Amino acid sequence: MKVRLHSSELEELFIENSYPDRFYSSQNGGVTERIISAKLLGGTGNYREIFMENIHIGYGDIQMSSRLEIDFESDFETVEMHFALKGRTRAEEKKTRKSFHFDRNQHNIIYVCGFKGRSFYPPAEGVKLFEVNLLPSFFKRF
Fold this sequence. Notes:
Layout: E1 2-7, E2 13-18, E3 32-40, E4 43-52, E5 55-64, E6 68-86, E7 89-93, E8 99-102, E9 106-121, E10 127-134, H1 136-140
């Protein structure tokens, strides 16, 4: 299970994260936490994540001085609860051309079965987001 973020124009790799199957880790009682800080084209970003069996929680804060486009790829199936706390974002899936828009103080629930697309961030606003991802195996218990 993997997530990759890279620039659209330069193919510069910003972040590549691998996750254990089902987000499970035997360290720290089954809970893993990490913080990722990155310099992006025209800005900076921090992303804090916590994952445990079948659940991933993330909080991101991105500040930029110009419009930012980031290519985003994931190779796993998830139900994502996405909360836009500040700023506006848009994502577009490359194969289906399906577009997702989020304004500040909005939220939604999205089913994703692998994603390869692009995220767009307008300049000067900054973006804060909170997301919870649940793997299908989370729901099978019920």
